[in-house]
Write a structure and sequence with these properties.
Length: 88
Amino acid sequence: MTVLVDDPRWPAHGRLWAHLVSDDSLDELHAFARSHDVPARAFDLDHYDVPEELVPRLIAAGARHVDGKELVRRLIASGLRIPARDRR
């Protein structure tokens, strides 16, 4: 069981955003997010969008920092990934 966070590289709303995922379960992901004040509105089907300034605190709390390709690879392997075609 691992919670992963990638680099904040996605611009929106005047800031950069990263992704927070679990490679085990959505329950694990939601519990981790709740315990670190990530708002529920940041959840997007299989990940949380988190602002750049939150990333160091999430890593200090135990999230494993990985690059974006590794994050997606692990999310797909977990079976939790929601493909873009299913996001509508």
